[in-house]
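To assess whether ligand presence alters the predicted conformation, the chain was also submitted together with adenosine monophosphate. Input:
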Amino acid sequence: MTSNIDSQNPLMGQMMYQPLMISSILVHAKNQHGNTEIVSRRTEGDIHRYTYADCELRARKVAQAISKLGLKPGERVGTIAWNGYRHLELYYGISGSGLVCHTINPRLFEEQISYIINHAQDRAIFFDITFLSIVRKIYNECPSVKHWICMIDADKLPESNSPKILCYENLLDEENGNFEWPNFDENTASALCYTSGTTGKPKGVLYSHRSTLLHTYASALPDSLNIASVDTVMPVVPMFHVNAWGIPYSCPITGAKIVFPGEKLDGASLYELLESEGVTMSAGVPTVWLGLLEYIRSQKLKFTTFNKAIVGGSVCPPAMMNDFNALGVKITHAWGMTELSPLGTAASLKASDLKKSEAQKKLILQKQGRSIYGIEMKIIDANGETLPRDGKSYGDLLVKGHWVISNYYRSDLSPLDKGWFPTGDVATIDQDGNMQITDRSKDVIKSGGEWISSIEIESIASAFPDISICACISIPHPKWGERPLLIVVKKLSVTKKDDLLKKEILSFFDGKMPKWSIPDDVVFIDQMPLTATGKLYKMKIRELFNGYQFKSNHS
Ligand code: AMP
């Protein structure tokens, strides 16, 4: 199609241009919501509270302090920290002064952490005291790091010469905050996060100020995370992985109060904060909610203010959605990736859905949802042909948009396929645009000519009352190529014999899926291998069952 626009002499709009700067988010929060609280459970053991205005001032002091340490714009500064106010100050102080805030996942193996630090060439690392033992083990392997800074009150700073450890609070005490946030190119790198690297070396995703600001706008929308100034938001999803789904940015633009849970993520500790701080919404991966729900059930508790939860990172089992709904908490199922900053889709009902039956509405909300404005998506078949949006055809999910990766950090190989990013997920999209992940492409079970979704099996099994957590993997099969095996961790209270339980679980599938896709067997283990981001660690689970053979192979 040819355009009538005169490219030599276009009529330009006459509106102000301001680069989209991350610092402007916190300045807005200071100006419009200066008294709104940020509450943190600290590693010191107490509850810390201050305001957006306090946070903005201390972020300026961070900017001054890192400049005094000799760190220059463009350089990477690492953080190994829980969700807390100091981490938030670093998000803004580092990015806002033109450096790159590199969040590091402490749950990775030490070799992976030092690999990541070396790959990023971090110049300084800010860390919580919890991670001192990691720092002591890796500092010799990380020659690029010139400063190790512990985020703790000065009187609690551990003595250490190797490495020499600076105190965050002392650094800030030396500054007066007389610092003006600079403006620069909005495409400048702002933050860096490495993928979990469960199937190879972790890869760095380098976000920009522009991509982050656009993601922030879109993620706060009503059909996305739906955050408002009346909300009190507790991000359980960690700030050390994909920017806690952007919540450290979307709360300040909306003026919502933030409650940071720190290191205590067990059911009892989360419940205590939800209640004591009047939390209205929270966000996290399903495994973290399992702990909270088990605690609520065992103690027969209720929520008084908590009413919406964002669940993503892996599929939200329908049973979990029902359990939350019964407690008055509305679930928004969201899908995303490190490579997408991370939000891609969120599930919500359209006006035309409201007249549907409750069962139909549930099915819509169990999907991963519609793409947020700014993200386009499509599914393709093995030949690269786009598949119809009929809710049945499934294929590889591809995305593009303002906050989607174009290249991994320090890699020359483009991950893109004709301008689209292949997510590695297999999905369907229905006529209303609702996307549903059926599997990771490498987790699909190829049985005969059919594909069986491991996610569907896990979702059904999760509703079985005696199952705490489960995973489905494919096992090689002489006749069918692959068949599904269900691996189960029982709830602690279960006393039934394994054989009986196995029979009950297998018959629980009857009528819920075609006979040929029901698992061939169920095995019980004590602990489920999880990744550093709390997802089923399928690679490790497959390793555990390497060589496994079904007792009676399906004929
Ligand atoms: P990460 O980059 O570590 O955040 O992992 C991204 C991957 O997590 C996606 O490609 C999906 O496979 C998976 N994922 C994220 N959200 C969901 C969800 N709601 N349902 C199913 N899988 C999800």
